[in-house]
Amino acid sequence: MNRRQFIQSAAGAAMVQAFDKGIGQGASASGQQAGFHFSVMLWTLEKKAPKTPDTVPFDHCMEMVHEAGYQGIELTHEFWKWSPEDIRRIMAKMRSLGMVFDALDGGKKDLADPNATDAILAQVNKAIPVMKDLECPQMILTSGKDIEGLSPEAERAAIVENLKRASDLVAKHDIQIALEPIDRLEKRNAYLNSVADGFEIVKAVGSPNLKVLYDFYHEQRAAGNLLQKLEDNIDLVGLVHIADVPGRHQPGTGEIDYANIYRKLAELNYKKFIAMEFFPTEDPVATLKKSRLDALQIEKSVHTT
């Protein structure tokens, strides 16, 4: 069953109805649908959840996310190893929990390499059927590395062309690409390391199926000036990721003023997913729940004043 067929089914209709109501606590005090929807990038729990083994079982992570009141889960590499039976079992559990996969990593390729087009499109093609099975509408792509020996102009032309080709490909399947910049403290030779350049590339591509993943953690480390870039380009934002600087822990542990970020997202009527991609310093469920409720409280305050 593909994503569209699932949504048209009884089970799918029930999930969509629950999602539209904000999964209980997502609705505002006035009864109106909240703009914020929340997910968790699961690798942060699988690898770094405190007071748990070094590797946390996937099903246990799903249950923690659900217990914390989240609607979505985002994936990196987990799904590549899943058998058809694994996918059927996991999707049955996701439906029973009232959750969705809202985004997954589409693979690692060097988008600024003019000789990598075939490999990029092959990787995207490989991800599409898995995304259909997982009923996941959004593919995350990072740029890969700076290409040695190429001029900045040649690299920019290559990434624009490769993303045009990839966007045309996913458009046939109702899938969106979220282009994620990675700061150079994390990846020294990353081609794309700021949302400022990401927005310009997305404008040059000109596809409705290509947006920017605004990761506030990466952008603070790369350049700062978080709110202005968000406000000036909100129509080009497809997804946001949350973690504090330094340490990649929950909001409130570092230097980023997430109260102002959530306030600005609410003022801009942002209704897409807010994904937590941090290492909890306390109990994972309690930390995730608090982070979600803090954001909701700010969202509600904006829309009730």
For the terminal residues, how far apart are their CA atoms?
44 Å
Query: Which architecture per CATH?
Result: Alpha-Beta Barrel
CATH hierarchy class name? Alpha Beta
Look at the structure and name the CATH superfamily: Divalent-metal-dependent TIM barrel enzymes
Number of domains: 1
Explain how this protein is built.
This protein has helices at 3-8, 10-20, 43-48, 58-67, 84-97, 117-133, 152-171, 195-205, 216-222, 226-232, 258-267, 284-303; strands at residues 37-41, 72-75, 100-105, 138-142, 176-180, 210-215, 237-242, 273-276. The chain is α/β, with parallel strands linked by helices and 305 residues long. It has one domain: Divalent-metal-dependent TIM barrel enzymes (TIM Barrel), CATH 3.20.20. Strands 1-2-3-4-5-6-7-8 form an eight-stranded parallel beta barrel, surrounded by four helices. α7 packs across α8. The model is unreliable at 6-33 (pLDDT under 50).
Keywords:
single chain; 305 residues; alpha/beta; TIM Barrel; eight-stranded parallel beta barrel; 12 helices; globular
In brief, what are we looking at here?
This protein is of the alpha/beta class. It is built from twelve helices and eight strands.
